TrEMBL record:
Residues 1-23 are annotated as: Disordered. It comes from the Eukaryota. This is F-box/LRR-repeat protein 15/At3g58940/PEG3-like LRR domain-containing protein. It holds the Pfam family LRR_At5g56370.
């Protein structure tokens, strides 16, 4: 009987040495292409390429963009990718990277939660990076939500910076305000930032080349004055009352302005920084009162003239091309609380002559907001495109009829230019909501080309087919000022996000 032959164990294959004259395609790439590859790797992995050949240490040492996350220098296999395993080791690794730099850092992005704990050390980091002479983009995200990171003086004096993005930081202009030299800055993004009115005013004023300014949640500041002659885009989101005054040269119109006021859930967005004066001491009882953010918000709403703030904002937008307003249902409730009223038109010298596109997300059936809508239309003689996204909440008033808008809209300048209207409704089959402002515009807009009434597809079920067809028949019999206008009902899967 023959014995079975057991095959020998397979040996691990060895890599054959590169043959003389073999083409090194990776090494043949230029530095710019290699940088584009390395920047897509985690910084730790990019640093590991330094062992490949004599050329690679220099390639890594001249990498233009450094992106630092909490887990950037963790041990491989560390289970939590969103947490720093060992902050001191993280700091030592970053120091090693910076010490071996062979060229200025062009873009520096740091995101961690221990900048406040190691404030002096990070002060050195930003002095090194900002003083290198080549920094163009800087992003600082402080994820320690208990404390704001005080922006070091080195950032204010960086002459080469073109983009600055700050999250959960404190702005405090150096005592020598003239030291602020951000004259090359074109983009400034402030998110959850603590700053006084004077600090915001000085920083923006010094950024003479700024083209885009974004403020998304700001604590402490109440009256923001923006002087920016080159500004092209302005985005502001606020969870509490804010007066915004824009001062700029009329020679260069603003391409886009967006304002969102959302006053819901003060317990999530308000903080002690909103009312606490850092120059005085507070008792324990006073601190406890300020921690009741809901009462704090109600008190401030009662003391604020919301409509005056809105008028101050709008009267500075005469040359703006595109305007988007998002006014939450909580904003409507605040207006009811203070019993506010508004103008039906801006002063003629402040008309929005440059406005071509207007987007409104609000409860347009609310009495005060309906007057605001009328004010905007009466003050925009060259408006061509109008978009209204309907916001409704329990207890919303009955939709306003076309006759209401006939009385409110007294200026007909925009009616000779308006070409497109898109109306997003979440109540298509409830009380004929489209008969109000939509019907008025179809009856009066002389050159209107398209009126599109958009509804979410989930609003209309198979059993609603008869009601939907009745709505279409109703549109067909509306009187029309323009014989060429197209009236349509359009289903969508989602409404646009502001």
């Amino acid at each position: 009987m023959d014995q079975e032959c057991t095959p020998p164990m397979a040996k691990r294959a060895r890599r054959s040495p590169p043959q003389a004259g073999a083409e090194d395609r990776l090494g043949a790439l230029d530095d710019a292409t290699l940088h584009a590859i390395l920047v897509r790797l985690p910084l730790r992995d990019a640093a590991a390429t330094a062992v490949l050949s004599r050329r690679w240490p220099r390639v890594f040492a001249t990498l233009p963009r450094l992106v630092l996350r909490p887990a950037t220098f963790n041990r491989r296999g560390f289970p939590d990718e969103d947490r720093c395993e060992d902050p001191p080791r993280w700091l030592r690794a970053l120091r090693c990277v910076l010490d071996r730099r062979a060229a200025p850092v062009v873009a520096f992005e740091v995101d961690c939660g221990f900048m406040c704990v190691y404030g002096e050390w990070f002060g050195w980091v930003f002095r090194e990076v900002c003083g290198s002479g080549g920094l163009l983009e800087l992003s600082i995200a402080n994820t320690d939500y208990k404390e704001c990171y005080a922006l070091p003086d080195a950032v204010y004096t960086c002459k080469t910076l073109t983009s600055l993005d700050l999250y959960n930081c404190r702005l405090q202009v150096p005592i020598r305000a003239a030291a602020v030299t951000l004259r090359a800055l074109q983009t400034l993004r402030l998110r959850n930032v603590v700053a006084r009115d004077s600090d915001i005013r000085l920083i923006v004023c010094r950024c003479t080349a700024i083209e885009r300014l974004e403020i998304h949640g700001i604590h402490m500041a109440r009256n923001i004055v923006i002087r920016a002659p080159c500004l092209k885009r302005l985005d502001i989101y606020s969870y509490r009352p804010l007066c915004i005054s824009l001062k700029k040269a009329k020679a260069q119109p603003l391409n886009m302005v967006r304002l969102s006021l959302s006053y819901g859930y003060p317990e999530h967005y308000w903080s002690l920084h909103d009312t606490k004066d850092t120059k005085r001491e507070y008792s324990v009882h006073e601190i406890e009162e300020m921690l009741d953010y809901k009462k704090m918000a109600e008190r401030e709403h009662r003391q604020t003239d919301e409509i005056k703030n809105m008028e101050t904002f709008l009267t500075a937008l005469s040359c703006t091309k595109t305007l988007q307003l998002h006014l939450s249902t909580e904003y409507s409730e605040v207006l009811d609380m203070v019993k506010a009223s508004t103008l039906t038109s801006l002063p003629k010298k402040k008309y929005l002559h440059g406005l071509k596109s207007l987007s409104l997300t609000l409860d347009h059936n609310h009495a005060v907001l309906a007057t605001l809508v009328s004010c905007l239309l009466n003050s925009s003689p060259n408006l061509k495109d109008l978009r209204i996204i309907e916001l409704r909440h329990p207890g919303s008033p009955v939709p306003l009829a076309a006759e209401f808008w006939e009385k409110k809209i007294t200026a007909d300048g925009f009616l000779y230019h308006l070409a497109s209207v898109t109306f997003y409704t979440d109540s298509l089959l409830e009380g004929h909501p489209c008969e109000g402002i939509c019907k008025f515009l179809v009856m009066n807009a002389r050159v209107l080309k398209r009126m599109s009434i958009v509804y979410h597809h989930s609003q209309v079920r198979p059993e609603h087919a008869a009601k939907l067809e009745a709505a279409r028949r109703e549109l067909r019999v509306w009187p029309r000022a323009s014989a060429d206008v197209l009236l349509e009902l359009t289903p969508v899967h989602r409404f646009p996000w502001f």
